[in-house]
Every structure is written in C-alpha cells, then in structure tokens.
C-alpha cells in the first residue's frame, strides 16, 4: 500500500498545480483564460516544488545515512559482545578445569584477548544514539577489562601449580566471569 500512497500523492500534487494555475490564469475567475499567465503560474509552482525537493532530498539522505551508521555501530557492539562471550566461556572452563587451565597457561594465545581489548577501545560510545546502547557499551568495556585481567593472570600463571593462580578465590573469579558473560550476552542486543 505504501507504493499507492506515493502515486496518489503525485497525482494530487499535479491536480493541485493545475487548479492553482487555472485560478491564476483566469485571475481567480475575474479575467478570461490566458495561456501566457497559465504558463507563468505552472512555472512558478514548479520552481517552488523544485526548491522544496532540493531541500527535502539531502535531509532524507542524511537521515538514511545516520540510520545506517547507527546500525553499523550496533552491529559492532553485538560482534564484540559475541566475541567476549566466546572467550569468557573458554576462561570459565579453564577456571573449572585445572587441566584446561594448565593448557591455557602453557599454550594459550593472548592474541585474541588483546584483539578483543583493542576492539573494546574502538566502541564509539559518544556516537551512539540510545541510552541503552551507551550503557551496554560502557559495561562491555568494563567487562572486557575485568576478563582480560583474569585471562592474563591465568596465562602468566605457573602451569605446574595452576590452582594457586587465583589464590583460592575461584568462586569470586567465577562470579565475576559470570557477570562478564551476562554483559556480553546483553550487548548482543544493545538497542533494547
């Protein structure tokens, strides 16, 4: 139905131009029809319409570009949230399983965590349009920093004595990482 609205709008505009021009060409019915006056009125109305369109289309285009930019920023937040959820899930498994933790300490690659930390720094917080997206972004940056500290501690820990990395505070670490996971999952739908 929206396509028909546009067609009807154009037809109504043409009819309005003809009616106004006819009134102008006859000087509101006071003089006989004059083709020269009719042409002047059509040209005047067409000029006004062209000026209106020249103002409307750039504004409409700017609005469309702003919407697309916001969608790209939200997609970036969703991607970072998904990446954080994946890495945090692996980190939680390491805390729960000493064998995995030893493997992470000996062979783990901190490159993904460093990449995530860098991505977190690129979130354009002050360019976001909704308060919800801004809150998610700030929480996401904080969560990345918290999880990075644990990943770094685990990676730099002694692989022969991995149980001592968190010095008996495994419950606190798990609680923090679960909080990070919640933030990561919430960031996957930042527009809400």
Can you walk through the features of this model?
The protein has six helices and no strands. With 192 residues, the chain is mainly α. It folds into two domains: 2-62, no CATH class; 67-186, no CATH class. The two termini are 29 Å apart.
Provide the gyration radius in Å: 31 Å
Q: Estimate the global geometry from the Cα principal axes.
A: rod-shaped
Order of helices and strands: HHHHHH
Structural class: mainly alpha
Number of helices: 6
Helix content: over 70%
How far do the termini sit from each other? 29 Å
The count of β-strands is: 0
Largest sheet: none
Provide a short characterization of the protein structure.
By secondary structure, the chain is mostly helical. It has six helices and no strands. Helix 2 (35-96) runs antiparallel to helix 4.
């Amino acid at each position: 139905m929206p396509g028909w609205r546009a067609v009807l709008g154009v037809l109504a505009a043409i009819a309005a131009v003809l009616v106004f021009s006819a009134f102008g060409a006859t000087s509101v019915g006071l003089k006989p029809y004059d083709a020269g006056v009719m042409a002047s009125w059509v040209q005047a109305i067409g000029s006004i319409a062209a000026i209106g369109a020249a103002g409307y289309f750039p504004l409409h285009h700017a609005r469309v570009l702003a919407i697309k930019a916001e969608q790209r920023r939200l997609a970036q937040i969703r991607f970072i949230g998904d990446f954080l959820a994946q890495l945090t899930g692996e980190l939680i498994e390491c805390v729960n399983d000493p064998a995995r933790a030893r493997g992470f300490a000996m062979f783990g690659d901190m490159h993904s965590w460093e990449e995530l930390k860098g991505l977190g720094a690129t979130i354009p917080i002050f360019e976001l349009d909704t308060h919800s997206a801004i809150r998610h972004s700030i929480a996401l940056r904080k969560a990345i920093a918290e999880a990075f500290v644990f990943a770094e501690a685990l990676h730099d820990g002694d692989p022969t004595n991995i149980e001592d990395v968190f010095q008996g505070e495994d419950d606190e670490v798990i609680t923090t990482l679960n909080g990070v996971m919640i933030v990561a999952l919430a960031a996957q739908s930042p527009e809400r």
